[in-house]
């Protein structure tokens, strides 16, 4: 197949007034299409249910974005049956044909770019540039996994003994249940599902209950791209209601999950049990939370370090699994870095991205439960250390806004140990570089981490010793690029599946060895 070499999708240039205008009109058009109903899609047919998910704009919770049918066990059963049937033909569809469909989905996303961005800005309330980075990431996943499938379609080279031929190749697994979080409702849902599809599996697509309209939009893209009926089935619903059923069922071959560690562990546990008629050990791909640290050494470029701490801590209101939630500052530069971080964090513009436009640098948090959780951690932080920035969040009925917040705390305090998943940064002072690295590693998570230093010895030490799946030097720690910074965590952060990397697709396939003696 002749394809241009892979490269990351460029971002929209928001300094170009034509793009700002295009986004404004997309917001207007999408704004006129809110409050619609979205059914399930099983075997290509629209299916209504008794339950519904009412999705709202987090910046304006009285504004309904859409009503999405919520699956019950009955529909989950239908979807599993349909996906099992569709596996027969999809698993035998040529890998090239599957890859082409992914490339077409990428092209559709490019064409619908501003429209999908507008839906995201209403449903998840990220700043425009954050929504755009996610859409670019989704396109990257489709383009990259299509090429990866072409690389792997004939298997990989192995050795043979004289007189024999040995082949090592991959085959699809079966029905995959893809369960996504709300914080990357476009990128992660696309990434997990496209990897499962391009490798020849059929999919139950279960978006987060907070971003199910975006899930419906991805389903539209897949349908338009030509994914055959039943190969991908749109089954939104409440995790607590259908999650266990989907994970436990004997027809489920694997589960690809991204979300909280609590849910991830439950999925792992349920998937491990064999039930009646189950004929395989289920595979789980589980990526979870983080408590990511940036270490600032005494030799660092302090202004760049401060800027990247602020970008990593407050991009999408700290609701990235990769977000910096701990800044560990060498004692000799502590005061100066802190001063600069405070200045830059104070300059962030908090607002409602759908109404206030391209200049908003931080929107609200996603939902009322998340607002309550972050607010209660702010109370914990006040009792554990000194609040250097931020005030108590306001009335959630006016939007789930939480101001950028900074605490100076001890390394073992709860706000410095537990995942808060909001715009709350814990600043910790370290005696020296060894102490800083020790503090960074003293946490059960191990997703991302960063070091700002000009000391080669310290960077080499961190390269070896920083216990995280993605470690970045002298730059921000968020925004991993597909194909460039494969992403996945150590420790309680996950099974280190490295999305967007060369080892990812084989997790969705069975490797087969066939040997013939001549
Ligand atoms: P969550 O665990 O609450 O929900 C994730 C998904 O699981 C949702 O679709 C939910 O409906 C579903 N679910 C809930 N209960 C279930 C059950 N019993 N069985 C099956 N599915 C169930 O997480 P969230 O709040 O949506 O997402 C935020 C979390 O995701 C954070 O911890 C964040 O760090 C993590 N995250 C990790 C990565 C990564 O790559 N490691 C990326 C993004 C987000």
Secondary structure layout plus pairing:
Layout: H1 17-31, E1 36-38, E2 40-42, E3 45-47, E4 51-57, E5 60-70, H2 73-90, H3 95-111, H4 113-123, H5 128-152, E6 164-172, E7 175-179, H6 187-198, E8 202-206, H7 212-225, E9 232-234, H8 239-248, E10 252-258, H9 261-272, E11 283-287, E12 292-296, H10 302-314, E13 324-330, H11 334-346, H12 353-356, H13 368-384, E14 386-389, E15 405-408, H14 414-417, E16 424-430, H15 433-441, E17 445-446, E18 448-452, H16 456-465, E19 470-473, E20 490-491, E21 509-517
Parallel strand pairs: 1-5, 7-8, 7-10, 8-9, 10-11, 12-13, 12-18, 13-16, 15-16, 18-19
Antiparallel strand pairs: 2-3, 4-5, 6-21, 14-15, 17-20
The protein binds nicotinamide-adenine-dinucleotide.
Nicotinamide-adenine-dinucleotide binds at residues 179-184, 188, 206, 208-209, 239-240, 243-244, 247, 258-260, 263, 266-267, 287-290, 321, 419, 421, 447, 489, 493-494.
What does the model show?
- The protein has 16 helices and 21 strands.
- With 518 residues, it is an alpha/beta fold.
- A seven-stranded mixed β-sheet has the order 14-15-16-13-12-18-19, with helices on both faces. It has a five-stranded parallel β-sheet with strand order 9-8-7-10-11, sandwiched between helices. Strands 1-5-4 form a three-stranded mixed β-sheet, covered by helices on one side.
- Strand 7, helix 6 and strand 8 form a beta-alpha-beta unit.
- The mean pLDDT is 98.
- The site of nicotinamide-adenine-dinucleotide has 32 residues, from helix 8 and helix 9.
What labels would you give this structure?
single chain; 518 residues; alpha/beta; five-stranded parallel sheet; binds nicotinamide-adenine-dinucleotide
